[in-house]
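Limitations
The structure tokens in this dataset are predictions for the assembled complex, not deposited experimental models. Users should treat interface geometry with appropriate caution, especially where small molecules or nucleic acid strands are included. An illustrative entry is reproduced here so readers can see what is and is not provided.
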Amino acid sequence: MASSETATAHTSPASSSAAPSSADRRAARRQRRMVSPLANIPFKQRLTNPYKPFEVLSAEQEEQLHEAAMQIVENIGIRFLDAEACDIWEKAGAKVDHDLQNVKIDRGLLLELVAKAPAQFNWIARNRERNRLIGGNDVAFCTHGGVIFAQDMDKGRRPGTLEDYYNFLKLNQSCPVLHFTGDQLVVPHDVPVSYRHLRRTYGAVTLCDKPYMEAPHGRIIAGDAVKMAKIIFQDDITKWDSPVLGGIINSSSPLRYDDRMIGGMIAYARAGQVLIITPFVLAGAMSPITIASAVAQQNAEALMGIAFVQAIRPGSPVIYGGFTSNIDMKSGAPAFGTPEGAWAMAIGAQLARRYKLPYRGSGSLNTSKVPDAQAAYETMWTTWPAIMAHTNFIMHSVGWLEGGLTVSFEKCIIDMESLAMFQHFLGGLEINEATLALDVMAQVEPAGTQYKTHFETPHTQARYSTEFYSPFLADRDNYELWKERGALDTAQRANKIYKQLHEEYEAPPLDVAIEPELREFVERREKELVGVELYT
Amino acid sequence: MASSETATAHTSPASSSAAPSSADRRAARRQRRMVSPLANIPFKQRLTNPYKPFEVLSAEQEEQLHEAAMQIVENIGIRFLDAEACDIWEKAGAKVDHDLQNVKIDRGLLLELVAKAPAQFNWIARNRERNRLIGGNDVAFCTHGGVIFAQDMDKGRRPGTLEDYYNFLKLNQSCPVLHFTGDQLVVPHDVPVSYRHLRRTYGAVTLCDKPYMEAPHGRIIAGDAVKMAKIIFQDDITKWDSPVLGGIINSSSPLRYDDRMIGGMIAYARAGQVLIITPFVLAGAMSPITIASAVAQQNAEALMGIAFVQAIRPGSPVIYGGFTSNIDMKSGAPAFGTPEGAWAMAIGAQLARRYKLPYRGSGSLNTSKVPDAQAAYETMWTTWPAIMAHTNFIMHSVGWLEGGLTVSFEKCIIDMESLAMFQHFLGGLEINEATLALDVMAQVEPAGTQYKTHFETPHTQARYSTEFYSPFLADRDNYELWKERGALDTAQRANKIYKQLHEEYEAPPLDVAIEPELREFVERREKELVGVELYT
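Predicted assembly:
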């Protein structure tokens, strides 16, 4: 992904700003007066969607897409560009052409393997209060990932650095409505490629206490990630019933998994960690142009990836991922936040339900260059269908700009507001005698004489500060007041909020035994990995 | 509504820029090279929602809200602040307290009256190709209405003028995805209050050919509107089976209709024209603070308004309107684009379906001061639930800012893009052998050798320019190209599009007999109405 490699000298993870002393933190806390309203959005251990899932497909159409995927795996096959993978497939009973590294499989066997995957599972966090159930009607929001450039209004757009990376981690930790710490939040261009993964995980678990991810890209990175997880959880987590680690696998569409992804799949699957199997299909480039075809292909690729994991370790946790959108036929660039992407998002969810699998979709996808109206409406064209369709794991739920090339600190804040609104929205509304309040209606003018308006009633007063979602970003003041306060647009207000959160950030507690052991591992591995080609 | 009355001299409607000569227009057309892509979005005579409606209420909750409304109308009653209305109610069999002007009614009688309203009807346009079916799974988009200030990036925010008004009409006509011409697009402060309605309708039918609205505010305005409709349609439209005219009625919540609204209701109902009965409930101010209570009250008020219309003229077309949102408890200002508003929108649709009535919701509601990210995400927090819940008539579907105090030309363009996207989205996707294209998959690498990528296949090439929604506003170019082109944000690009549309605007043909007759009516009435108090 990283195109401009501006790596600088080897620096110890401990020399970064990751872990200020706890005395410093306590002192800072005492001085503090304000606490950002964003940080006070309630954290919910479970967020469930009480509404019926939005579905695009009729039962017949769903059947057509299933049948098409079955024909693809039976008659065309999927390439697995890795000798070990071909052996695994052969042992599992698939028809393997070792020269082409092409795998065909009967639908019976495929579906039998897919059926071994759990319909839901618990993803364990180092702070156990942040464990997250994945599947069913649960919804979880994860950060951005796989991004090249960082952007804020003060410094503009630039290739990401480790400082940016850790700042995004801190921002994530400050936002209770984000449930997961993703990986590759932005490429840290000032860290050599060969050990970026170590710095990512080190930051993810020292600066945040949420369930976290690390990219399963090849056997080395994935192997290190599993070893670090063992240190973080101080146990052989590969023997646990529930995973503690996971990452995204993208097929190299059309109809292909490359060796890098396969290495990661094998390593995580053997360790029983989460694989989010996500075909990256852009209709018109990596599949036929029609969305029907793109999602049929997505379905074949996803099911083959999932079956592959189950062939390695039956019951290992997987998530059916959808990341199908379209190409912009004018520019040739990927398009996001489109009507076609909304269809694909909902169709993926419907298919995942058919196979009794958790579903991963996306949140803040858009192609705007700045956090403006287009960024916001395309984002909503992604997040609304994702939520409505019952997406369980929403990746990139904050921050995207520019088709995912850039992540903006201000856009993160803007998107967090919508996530907080969705959290409230999914909370559902209570209807009972107290909330219907017919007796109150009868007391207020014109029906009664006790109160002039509903502002004044004890019923309203008692619920004054808790009844409604209270925004931290939206400006609802009148025009004159808004102007008096500087006529700031949304991005400018978001910039202030981000800076306040940065000031107020506080690292979550970490068992004293863990950090030195983790640091030692990272420092040792960094020396070992100098100059090593990771993706084998 | 209009607070700053800056009326200037009486000017003839014909002196406005409403109707350039057709020779001028033809000449301009010849010179023209570009045609805005916005104007080329396909016009659809019907736009239907193929998906299941999104519902917030369980069956039991729906029953609770029905029951609550029944208790309100039976035990508390609704005020109808008009002597004639009280007489109408008494004749219909309701229990009327003439001193209080309070009406109570048994649920049996209420529901019997409501059942007389048509479940769907055809709203006739002067261009019959633009007639619109209202109800069922059909969706129609209408402009903004009831706005004080106009805003664009060139001239900033200012009290609206007749020129602004006519420019919004022209913009509406240029956009095929808007189906209705609303009224009160912006207050024309330079026109005396007593004949603004005449100028509104004159513009609406000379500058646009869509089905149109005129505010049924009092007997005089509504009466003039019916007379003008007779001229426009050159017939006694009050005897037609289908309406040609309509407008919004707001209750004066809580539990009250004022004389102005009642006058309009009586006039339009007697003429068989459309009444969109929309309680304007802000939870915490005009109803108890809980959304459960607010929608229960909305339900009682809406049903009483609808029953009143049916008592006047059984079968007269009505639309059940929902406009419930919440108060911002920090500023005391109305909040829009909120999770609570999204609930209320969907609940209104569900209740309207229960009573077999068409439903009116809203589209672009937000509280931002400029067309920025907040404006866009709050707008989507209104439009998405409106669409998903099967709203039939979407009012304010473009242009709002500042809680509806301001309408922005740029925001209109921004919102039109989302409407066009929804039009595509609701078109649904086809799944068949040709769109699944499994044969094509087998021809492209790695599965086949015929084509390197899907870009090149005849299947893609044949669908290249038609398969996807093609945006007129979203920028999908790469960062460098975007920068080279001026690094324009969405609002700046929208400004250019608006100006291009303004240049390219062409008035729709109008029967030569109509315009002079209409002008004569307007000129005569304007003289008659000087100094007249309209709202009686």
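Some entries come with short summary sentences. For this one: DSSP finds 18 helices and 19 strands in chain A.
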